[in-house]
């Protein structure tokens, strides 16, 4: 039933039905959580061999004794495995600690305090970053932490609205960066088209030290057999005469163990030398034993891809379940739209404008925790109060089904309340 087309006198009946359904939902005393995009224990189990690797007497890789200090660039054997999938040549790819978010944080700190290779320190300047929305809340809070202004720009299915991006960066020299999750974006699953990547890599920018913060967190995280590829940002930027523009980030957090994976940084030789030099004051080298464990476990790029097939087998059915239930109960109602991602960790649900907060509140009171409404926008402020991020990976499939069913009831109730003027 298309709820948005109902006349005022037709709304009380569905409103009463939905209130009853909601009371029944509450009576189930659920305790479910669809908030953070964490791997489920079943996914972590796929990599448990790591816990016994590299083995008591195995600590050498090539000429490196991984137990010792040194090797700021990380173990070459591991960089080799990830180089192809991340589209970064081995000499320009660093294997670092356990969190790419930490590397993004460091990169911003170094740019603020020391300046990028081609610019003055950003600190003291009133700088801004473009933020395609909806986006990743931790990117936005990282900006807030350092007083960097977040400028929202619309994100479409093929990437940020490039007309808006090009106009803003061309006219405003205080815009120093843009957050990009180019493949299977958090939360919409957007995949940047070749044209988008090319335009980002080549567009004229008023700031000569403008950076693409290229967070390729889901580079290998396909949900279908269609292993989507994106254009190579480093190659395109270099060809366009902007070799230092991309900072590429990735990690194995959602490949092996989220808390003890390996983060990667890629960039031009100059950017890589810049990061390494700045890091050298704070560390004598990354955890190469962890790098070696990952080499022993994944073996080669093929091993890595085969491992991701196993991940997909665990999580794809959960996504299918959510999409099936959304379609079944919200399809044709006119009060919700959602993304159908081909990869990544999230489904982005747009509910009737002005009801997202209400939906999250109703769900909470029914024992279903959702990411706060607005979290996908800078400062938690979704101007249309309609976007909700669903993260189906962590709960088991029965819980995913129960939670989605409950969320749908809340979406419908909030919509009919709103349409009724209640
Ligand atoms: N970037 C994006 C887009 C993410 O969704 C996440 C995890 N939710 C991260 C980075 C965090 O990565 P890491 O575990 O490597 O710090």
Automatic annotation (TrEMBL):
Transmembrane segments: none annotated. The keyword Transferase applies. SUPFAM superfamilies: PLP-dependent transferases. It comes from the Bacteria. InterPro entries: AspAT_Ic, PyrdxlP-dep_Trfase, PyrdxlP-dep_Trfase_major, PyrdxlP-dep_Trfase_small. GO terms for molecular function: L-aspartate:2-oxoglutarate aminotransferase activity. This is Aspartate/methionine/tyrosine aminotransferase. It comes from Crossiella cryophila.
